[in-house]
Design goal:
There is one protein chain. With 108 residues, this protein is mainly alpha-helical. It has one domain. It has 5 helices and 2 strands, in the order H-H-H-E-E-H-H. Helix 2 runs antiparallel to helix 3. InterPro entries: DUF4145.
Length: 108
């Protein structure tokens, strides 16, 4: 579900993470996604729950999910909402700088 919210197919989390990395995903967010992938994979398999997991691992898993959501969903949405409240000419100047920076960025 989360991977589809991040713009990927949501069928193979490993492939989805790699696609995000290929698009320039921040390495810290990649690590958080891999943490969730690996802890989740090791914790629960069909018909099997690992009762040896510590509360700290579960707590950190939720922290990682919150970090991912804040970085990839909440912050961009908040920025979009904030920028949309500006006058059109200011929005245009901000977009022009973003476009210029994107044009100068090395290809992924």
């Amino acid at each position: 579900m989360l991977m589809s919210e991040l713009g990927e197919k949501g069928k193979d989390i490993n492939t989805d993470i790699q696609k995000l990395v290929d698009k320039g995903l921040d390495p810290q967010i990649q690590a958080a996604l891999d943490y969730c992938r690996l802890v989740g994979n090791n914790a629960v398999h069909p018909g099997e729950i690992d009762f040896n997991e510590t509360p700290e691992i579960a707590h950190t898993l939720f922290e990682m999910i919150n970090l991912i959501v804040e970085d990839r969903i909440a912050r961009p949405k908040k920025m979009g909402t904030s920028l949309s409240k500006l006058p059109a000419e200011i929005q245009k100047k901000i977009q022009e700088r973003a476009d210029k920076a994107a044009a100068q960025a090395p290809p992924n």
